[in-house]
Amino acid sequence: MSTNANWHCGNYYWHKLSRNVNFKVCLVSNGHATQAVMVVQNKASVSVRINGESQITTNFGGDQGCQEHVLEAGQTRGCYGPTVEGVTTGAGADGWLRVNYVGERWSEAMARQT
After folding, report:
1. Could you tell me if residue 2 is inside a domain?
2. Based on the structure, what is the number of domains in the chain?
3. Which of 29, 55, 73, 113 has its CA 20 to 30 A from that of 9?
4. CATH of residue 28
Protein backbone atom coordinates (compact mmCIF):
# COMPACT_ATOMS: atom_id res chain seq x y z
CA MET A 1 0.00 0.00 0.00
CA SER A 2 1.20 3.46 -0.78
CA THR A 3 -0.20 6.78 0.36
CA ASN A 4 0.20 10.44 -0.57
CA ALA A 5 -0.76 13.87 0.77
CA ASN A 6 -4.47 13.13 0.18
CA TRP A 7 -4.40 10.50 2.94
CA HIS A 8 -5.27 11.71 6.45
CA CYS A 9 -4.78 8.88 8.93
CA GLY A 10 -5.12 8.31 12.63
CA ASN A 11 -2.45 6.44 14.54
CA TYR A 12 -2.00 2.70 14.47
CA TYR A 13 -3.40 0.96 17.54
CA TRP A 14 -2.96 -2.70 18.35
CA HIS A 15 -5.93 -5.02 18.26
CA LYS A 16 -6.95 -6.53 21.60
CA LEU A 17 -6.16 -10.01 20.25
CA SER A 18 -2.47 -9.24 19.67
CA ARG A 19 -0.04 -6.35 20.07
CA ASN A 20 1.37 -7.47 16.69
CA VAL A 21 -1.83 -6.73 14.74
CA ASN A 22 -2.27 -2.99 14.27
CA PHE A 23 -4.96 -1.02 12.51
CA LYS A 24 -5.81 2.57 11.72
CA VAL A 25 -8.48 4.52 9.88
CA CYS A 26 -7.74 6.97 7.08
CA LEU A 27 -9.80 9.44 5.09
CA VAL A 28 -8.66 10.00 1.52
CA SER A 29 -9.91 13.21 -0.06
CA ASN A 30 -9.10 14.81 -3.39
CA GLY A 31 -11.14 17.98 -2.79
CA HIS A 32 -14.16 16.58 -4.65
CA ALA A 33 -14.84 13.25 -2.94
CA THR A 34 -13.81 11.29 0.15
CA GLN A 35 -13.12 7.62 0.79
CA ALA A 36 -12.54 5.88 4.13
CA VAL A 37 -9.87 3.19 4.40
CA MET A 38 -9.03 0.86 7.28
CA VAL A 39 -5.38 -0.21 7.15
CA VAL A 40 -4.39 -3.45 8.90
CA GLN A 41 -0.79 -4.38 9.62
CA ASN A 42 0.38 -7.84 10.74
CA LYS A 43 3.73 -7.57 12.53
CA ALA A 44 3.41 -11.09 13.97
CA SER A 45 5.48 -14.04 12.78
CA VAL A 46 2.30 -15.98 11.90
CA SER A 47 -0.66 -15.28 9.63
CA VAL A 48 -4.00 -14.06 11.00
CA ARG A 49 -7.49 -14.20 9.54
CA ILE A 50 -9.38 -10.97 9.00
CA ASN A 51 -12.98 -12.06 9.19
CA GLY A 52 -15.81 -11.05 6.92
CA GLU A 53 -17.49 -8.92 9.58
CA SER A 54 -14.64 -6.42 9.50
CA GLN A 55 -15.96 -3.13 8.18
CA ILE A 56 -15.36 0.56 7.76
CA THR A 57 -18.16 2.93 8.84
CA THR A 58 -18.46 6.63 8.10
CA ASN A 59 -20.62 9.60 8.96
CA PHE A 60 -21.07 10.36 5.25
CA GLY A 61 -22.68 7.20 3.87
CA GLY A 62 -19.62 5.24 2.85
CA ASP A 63 -20.03 2.09 4.96
CA GLN A 64 -18.43 -1.01 3.49
CA GLY A 65 -17.76 -4.57 4.62
CA CYS A 66 -14.30 -6.04 4.14
CA GLN A 67 -13.71 -9.37 2.50
CA GLU A 68 -12.41 -12.22 4.60
CA HIS A 69 -8.68 -12.52 4.08
CA VAL A 70 -5.63 -14.25 5.51
CA LEU A 71 -3.11 -11.57 6.39
CA GLU A 72 0.33 -13.13 6.19
CA ALA A 73 3.16 -12.28 8.59
CA GLY A 74 4.59 -8.86 7.74
CA GLN A 75 1.74 -7.95 5.39
CA THR A 76 -0.26 -4.69 5.36
CA ARG A 77 -3.68 -4.52 3.72
CA GLY A 78 -6.34 -1.88 3.20
CA CYS A 79 -10.11 -2.24 3.42
CA TYR A 80 -11.52 0.45 1.14
CA GLY A 81 -14.93 2.00 1.64
CA PRO A 82 -16.79 3.47 -1.34
CA THR A 83 -15.88 6.90 -2.67
CA VAL A 84 -18.59 9.47 -1.88
CA GLU A 85 -18.78 12.52 -4.14
CA GLY A 86 -19.33 15.97 -2.65
CA VAL A 87 -17.91 15.17 0.80
CA THR A 88 -14.81 17.23 1.48
CA THR A 89 -15.08 18.49 5.08
CA GLY A 90 -16.44 17.16 8.35
CA ALA A 91 -15.99 13.53 7.38
CA GLY A 92 -15.33 10.91 10.05
CA ALA A 93 -14.88 7.14 10.07
CA ASP A 94 -14.31 4.18 12.35
CA GLY A 95 -13.19 0.63 11.67
CA TRP A 96 -14.47 -2.66 13.07
CA LEU A 97 -11.81 -5.35 12.75
CA ARG A 98 -12.34 -9.05 13.42
CA VAL A 99 -9.05 -10.91 13.74
CA ASN A 100 -9.31 -14.67 14.20
CA TYR A 101 -12.99 -14.14 15.16
CA VAL A 102 -12.27 -11.49 17.83
CA GLY A 103 -13.77 -8.07 17.05
CA GLU A 104 -12.80 -4.57 18.12
CA ARG A 105 -13.51 -1.02 16.93
CA TRP A 106 -10.57 1.25 16.12
CA SER A 107 -12.07 3.89 18.44
CA GLU A 108 -12.15 1.31 21.27
CA ALA A 109 -8.51 0.37 20.69
CA MET A 110 -7.57 4.05 20.64
CA ALA A 111 -9.41 4.71 23.93
CA ARG A 112 -7.74 1.68 25.55
CA GLN A 113 -4.23 2.78 24.53
CA THR A 114 -4.29 6.54 25.05
Report:
1. no
2. 1
3. 73
4. 2.60.40.1150
| One pLDDT digit (tens) per residue for the chain, 114 residues | 778 889 999 999 999 999 999 999 999 998 888 888 899 999 999 999 997 556 777 777 767 778 888 999 999 999 888 788 887 777 888 888 999 999 998 888 989 887
Tell me if residue 67 falls in helix, strand or coil: coil
pTM over 0.85: yes
Helix (H) or strand (E) segment spanning residue 108: helix 106-113
Confirm if 35 and 62 have CB atoms less than 8 A apart: yes
Is position 74 within any domain?
Answer: yes
Please calculate the CA angle 93-97-103 and round it to the nearest 5 degrees. 125
